Every structure is written in C-alpha cells, then in structure tokens.
C-alpha cells in the first residue's frame, strides 16, 4: 500500500492574538481512517478541501465536506 501524502510545518513562535500554532500541514487521509480513543493536549483543526467524511466526538457526529 502506498503511503498517504503528508507534509507538516513547524511554527515554534507563531502567536496570533492568543492562538499559538504549533504545527500545520496537509495530508491525504485514507478511506475509513480513525484516530483514538485518546485525548489530545491541544486542539486540532481540519480544513476539508475535497471529499467528505464524518467527525465523531462523544455521542455527537458531524458531517464534513469541502
């Protein structure tokens, strides 16, 4: 299986009005990808540019799309 495309960037001192950006990047997520269960010590923001998917947290489910 081919490795999904990923590229990450580190921003060690990026602080915008109280929001600190540690890492940014782009990736191509494989179909049926899941993460967890687990707890992150930071917020993770996704911006969907193509395709669709679902985001599950607790008992809530959110539809994602471009």
Cα(first) to Cα(last) distance is 26 Å
Gross geometry:
globular
Number of helices: 0
Largest sheet: 2 strands, antiparallel
Strand runs, count: 4
Helix content: under 10%
Class by SSE composition: mainly beta
**What value does the average pLDDT take?**
77
In spatial order, strands of the major sheet run 1-2
Succession of helices and strands: EEEE
Radius of gyration, in Å, reads: 14 Å
Low-pLDDT segments, ≥5 res:
none
Give the DSSP E fraction (strand runs of 2 or more residues). Answer: over 45%
Give an overview in words:
The chain is mainly β. 0% of the residues lie in helices and 48% in strands. Strands 1-2 form a two-stranded antiparallel sheet. Strands 3-4 form a two-stranded antiparallel ribbon.
Helix and strand arrangement:
Blueprint: E1 6-16, E2 19-27, E3 52-57, E4 60-65
Antiparallel strand pairs: 1-2, 3-4
Task: Spell out the key features of this protein.
mainly beta
Briefly characterize the structure.
The chain is mainly β. It is 0% helix and 48% strand.
């Amino acid at each position: 299986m081919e490795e999904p495309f990923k590229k990450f960037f580190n921003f060690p001192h990026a602080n915008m009005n109280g929001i600190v950006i540690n890492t940014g990047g782009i990736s191509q997520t494989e179909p049926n990808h899941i993460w967890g269960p687990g707890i992150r010590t930071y917020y993770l923001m996704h911006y969907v540019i193509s395709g669709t998917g679902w985001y599950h947290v607790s008992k809530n489910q959110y539809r994602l799309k471009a």
